[in-house]
Amino acid sequence: MRIACLGGGPAGLYFAISMKLRDPSHEIVVMERNRASDTFGWGVVLSDDALENLAANDPKSARAIRDHFAYWDDIAVVHDGVRTVSGGHGFAGIGRKQMLVLLQERARELGVDLRFETQFDDVEAIRQDYDLVVGCDGLNSRVRATYADTFKPDVDTRKCKFVWLGTHQKFDDAFTFIFEKTEHGWVWAHAYQFDADTATFIVECSQETWDAWGFEDMTKEETVETCRRIFERHLDGHDLMSNAAHLRGSGVWINFPRVLCERWHHENVVLLGDASATAHFSIGSGTRLAFDSAIALAEFLHSEPTLERAFERYQDERRLDVLRLQSAARNSLEWFEEVERYLDLDPVQFNYSLLTRSQRISHENLRLRDPEWLKSAERWFAMRAGVAANAPVRAPMFTPFRLREMELKNRIVVSPMAQYKAKDGLPTDWHLVHLGERAKGGAGLVFTEMTCVSPTGRITPGCPGLYAPEHEAVWTRIVAFVHAETDARICCQIGHSGRKGSTGLGWDGMDQPLPSGNWDLISASAIPWSEGNATPREMSRADMDQIRDEFVASTKMAARAGFDMIELHAAHGYLLSSFISPTSNTRTDDYGGSLENRLRYPLEVFEAMRAAWPSEKPMSVRISASDWVGDSGVTPEEAVEISRGFHAAGADLIDVSAGQTSVEAKPVYGRMFQTPFSDRIRNSAGITTMAVGNIYEADHANSILMAGRADLVAIARPHLADPYWTLHEATRIGDRQAAWPLPYLPGRDQAWRLADREAEAARV
């Protein structure tokens, strides 16, 4: 096969090597615009498992690369005058130039034709002359641009500015992050050794700080000197250096472009490396991505019967890994973009937040890496919550929490989850068993499902209410059981369905109108939930007064029933949510238009409830922090202001959910996918939050809490599958402090023995 690799970076060189190893008869040419000795980065970072992949593919080049590695095990974070070090991270660095030299040598040895200072402007002409053309020409790929209609690239240029520099201050004891507060804003550095004498030193800052420093008008030399002065006390007298000889002035600064292509191949052309997908430098995986993809492409080109089939396998099987890496990289770069949100955190928590920013490193993974540091961090977290210094150290999820006079034994919450088992608004024995079991299961706080303020405020005929004396009596019984038999607390979520009401039970078709017996609907505006739902009546002022009073009446019933806490449901497209979201509120009076106006009625209801609820007991509000429809709906930025409004009115906790407000929503799912909304509200506005959304392991909960992304963690579906999820997760992670119901102690003992046996077997 005649192959042209357009681009002589790590991707192109390593693909050529991998192809020659599988079939020496391939005629392979690598074309590179620059000279063989040119390189515009400094060091490259590879993890232990990346090295293993290289060794399995080509032991000789892997050995050569490994022989030039600088290794480190620690990560150091310098913040607020404190240097925090954690170990066990296992990375290696090598100079980009050195690595290219080694790959060039190996490629020549295998018979690859390397052509430097060679332009390839006419990609189509090259395509006609070769059996296979590999576009591995980097971020600004000409190959990708030539066939953009096929590849359909999505290029997202990110907010922060960064510049690649080097220094002879080696930073040879740890990968080091340095955060400096300057007269013009925060500037930070990513520093790591890559050879015996040199370290990479990436300087990064926000656009606002960059503008304030005047970097746009500086020469390259002035930029380097300014960065040196900013980080002078960390450089031990050494200078900073630029090797971007081809760039002038502010051109040395870059805004990172996140590249993702819908398709990776066209006819006999295929994309590889940064040309097809990029990963932010803060997770150090761009080169590893290129190497792994090069190996995969070479393998499929030899295992599949046709070029087209090889391309399809390559794209299908590499895309998932690429998306996973890009997801981690996106989490990481967004953390740095918003880092000023975290800089007031205690150094312990700031360090933890940085280490877990990508979600690739979890709580228990940190325990494997550096158990002593994590134990000290857990102790810090517990002591901050009032736990005695000599108490057993427990994971953050088992740390107590206080809202007003309500004390929670831990940070795990059973989410509100619709059961559709009520009769005419009356809770049944199902609710007693459902809530009672989950209260027995170890959670600190248990929520009822949305409990409705009127018959026409129900979502379905199976939804419970708090609008009749008989409802209050049954809820009193349920609350009494929870208090008598468990040490959990119980919260009543109170709401009104609005335009999403008069629908069938969840398992009969979500949000589908009843086949008969429908009731009239009301909402902020006369906009139906969907084409299949009835059009609601726009609420009048008289309607608002009536429903506000119904919320107050339900609040007073909840107080008499003995609930420890109540929550106002102002999310998910229900009545109060319909006022807040511009997708459902098109009013032209004082309750529509601006966010202030849209929030006016929900705040009125909340304030009336707060006045009727005992002052010593807490209240929370559930919000949808994003409508998932872009700028035409509620945005995460608006969610901060919504939270501030409720907090000022007396809300003790914001229960941060998202979506379910528009049928046009396009959520971005994933593990803990709604946690960033909670993070933003908590750390931008200083408001207590609860995180929800695809949280299903103790690891998730502990990571969220320890990093300060939320104060409480709500677990939904796992609690449907396992009422004792909290106790079982405690057992799984080795916690032996959780209190089990006394009749269940023999089961506890067996569970502990089995878990200990399994842990011991894993260590052997």
List the helices and strands and how they pair.
Layout: E1 2-6, H1 10-22, E2 27-31, E3 43-47, H2 48-57, H3 59-66, E4 70-72, E5 75-79, E6 82-86, E7 91-95, H4 96-109, E8 113-115, H5 123-129, E9 132-135, H6 142-146, H7 148-151, E10 153-167, E11 175-182, E12 185-193, E13 199-205, H8 207-213, H9 220-230, E14 240-241, E15 254-261, E16 265-266, E17 269-271, H10 286-303, H11 307-337, H12 347-355, H13 363-369, H14 371-384, E18 401-403, E19 406-408, E20 412-414, H15 429-440, E21 445-447, E22 451-452, H16 469-485, E23 489-495, E24 522-523, E25 537-538, H17 541-561, E26 565-570, H18 575-580, H19 595-612, E27 619-624, H20 636-648, E28 653-657, H21 675-685, E29 689-691, H22 698-706, E30 712-715, H23 717-721, H24 725-732, H25 745-763
Parallel strand pairs: 1-2, 1-9, 2-8, 5-11, 9-17, 20-21, 20-30, 21-23, 22-23, 23-26, 24-25, 26-27, 27-28, 28-29, 29-30
Antiparallel strand pairs: 3-7, 4-7, 5-6, 10-13, 10-14, 10-15, 11-12, 12-13, 16-17, 18-19
Description:
By secondary structure, the chain is α/β, with parallel strands linked by helices. The protein has two domains: 2-337, FAD/NAD(P)-binding domain (3-Layer(bba) Sandwich); 398-755, Alpha-Beta Barrel (TIM Barrel), CATH 3.20.20. It has 25 helices and 30 strands. The strands form six sheets. Strands 5, 6, 10, 11, 12, 13, 14 and 15 form an eight-stranded mixed β-sheet that branches. Strand 12 (185-193) and strand 13 form a beta hairpin. The longest helix is centred in the middle third of the chain and has 31 residues, at 307-337. The protein is globular, with a radius of gyration of 29 Å. The relative contact order is 0.08. The mean pLDDT is 95.
